[in-house]
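Follow-up to my earlier ticket, as requested here are the two runs.
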Amino acid sequence: MIALIAGSLVLSVLHALIPNHWLPVLAISRREQWSLSQTTSVTLAAGLAHALSTVLLGGLIALAGRALSDSIEPFTHFFAPGVLIALGLFYMYQHHRHKHFHLHSKPVISPRQVVISLVIAMFFSPCLEIEAYFLMAGATGWWLVAVLAVLYTIVTVSGMVLWVRLTYRGLVKMNWHTLEHNAGIITGVTLVLTGIASFFLH
């Protein structure tokens, strides 16, 4: 339980910081000349859409974890932690294949359509890395699934809003490319460490 909550918290914080979660909003905001309040509102809507799809998918995966834990005795102790470790190794291996958000020519659509498109895009790009935690939480109980869902939503959405507001005002200057490039490694290490800890903490 402790390992799951700690691991999911680390991933939630990381994904609130990753530029591809909030940089598209900021880029469109600059192009459309939105105010800070408009930018904040759109970021909040996009973040909630992203969190909603992640939590809905997590709930379905938690159901699978619950079913497996009831029918396969070693699931909680061996298989589920193994999934975390395997997924972590995958992200470490794939860390160099990251995507950037590129803003090209200005599309001929209304501001409302821009916002709707952005929210839909965020809804259909759930955070897949966190889903392994929902798989394990389902084997423990629905209360832990709820804790992970609330924790992920609050940290991710508030983090996105905070970084957009700070960056909008020019208060934060960081090497976002380096952070984004290394996000796969950080994510992978977090998943592997959580998986290893889960072998010993149950």
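Run two:
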Amino acid sequence: MMDAHIGKTVAEIRVGEEAYFAKTMTETDMMLFAGITGDLNQLPINGEFARGSRYGQRVAHGMLTASFVTNILGMKLPGFGTLLRSFKVRFTAPVFLDDTVEIGVRVSATDLAGNTATFETWAVNQRGETVMRGSCVVTPPTALAPA
């Protein structure tokens, strides 16, 4: 049986297409990420430590912010069945506890023969500051023959 929710194939993706996801960084997000990854850096998880840092407050793990790109790729564009092959990211400003970030992706290239799509990625906070830029390559889902 074919999944009605399968994402776009490489042939269906168009250069210039965009998709977005917004998230407010919560205490729960930051603590669960620390626990799942084992990254117990005190800057994201210890308010007292963070107040004494150059930022004066807790800073989210950079990879937590970057990981929201996979929400878009796996759920929206291309969608279900997408495999992330590579991801390059540069953090340009910190994301703080309670910041809201909008993450975006834009298709920059497709390769029909290689069954890949390349995306530009970025994240912007509620103050309009770009906090992350990057790029990634995915293998979109393959159309399935009806069962």
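The only thing I checked on run two: The CA atoms of residues 91 and 132 lie 4 Å apart. Let me know what else you need.
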